[in-house]
Amino acid sequence: MTRKTLLLAVALLVGACASAPKTTTIQPLAPSSGAPFDNVLVVSLFDSFDVRRYLETELVKSLKARGVNAVASTSKMDSRTPVARETFAAMVDELGSDAVLVTRLVSLKTEAKMKDMRPEETVNVWPTYYYNVWAVDVTEYVEPQAMQLDQSVVLSAHVFSVAAKEPVWGIETDAKIVSAFDEGADYSIFVDEANLIVKQLVQAGVINK
User: Fold this and answer.
1) Which of 22, 86, 201, 203 is the least buried, fewest Cβ under 10 Å from its Cβ?
2) Is 91 helix (H, G, I), strand (E, B) or coil?
3) Is 12 in a helix, a strand, or coil?
4) What is the C-alpha separation between 37 and 202, in angstroms, rounded?
């Protein structure tokens, strides 16, 4: 029997996974809100333009599936456009929006720890000329330790009434994410967040079912 041990300096194979986000805080819908709304500008406030675009895109998809006319602010701007009140006010005027859905990061807590990787191996077996004697070749793939990130991400979502010029509803959500240090975000995180927020919008009567 021969054993070949290969140290693979490759990207970590631990995939990012996330628990379903949960609603932790709810600001009830204001009685004078003017809801339900049916023409919503969707705005996400994050440092990364791409993260803003991803979440806004999924929120718009989920809102449109409910029959709401929704537009992502990132569809009308690029990374150089000022993220300012005047920018979004101009969009509201152009679109005739009756509400603005704003999401932003409230907190991000990260704990990093080293994780031993499970070795993988392949085994090849073939007969020899001798009775009941087999040749076996085992190749073992051993990876270096991986850095695992355990994150708690809290987001807020607020709906601003254009007519009332004030926030009339809001929630906070909490998601737990486990990922490798050198990986990007799992896109399903944006889908889950968007679906949860829109589900809460429906339940609160902010938009029609």
Assistant:
1) 86
2) helix
3) coil
4) 10
* 3-class state of residue 144 by DSSP: coil
Quote the tokens at residue 186. 């799992």
pTM for the structure as a whole:
0.74
The secondary structure element, H or E, covering residue 61 is: helix 49-65
> Tokens at residue 193, please?
């967040």
Structural domains present in the chain: 2-204 (3.30.160.150)
Place 142 in a pLDDT band, splitting at 50, 70 and 90.
low
Strands (E), the chain: 2-7, 17-18, 22-27, 39-45, 69-72, 99-115, 120-127, 134-142, 146-161, 166-180
Q: Are 41 and 71 in contact (CB under 8 A)?
A: yes
Residues 6+ apart with CB under 8 A from 176: 18, 19, 150, 151, 152, 153
Confidence (pLDDT) at 162: 96
CA distance readout (Å), 101 to 39, 64, 78, 104: 10, 14, 19, 10
- What is the per-residue pLDDT across 78-95, written as a single tens digit (0 to 9) for each? 999 999 999 999 999 999
Q: Residue 94, class by beta-carbon neighbours within 10 Å (0-12 exposed, 13-18 middle, 19+ buried)?
A: exposed
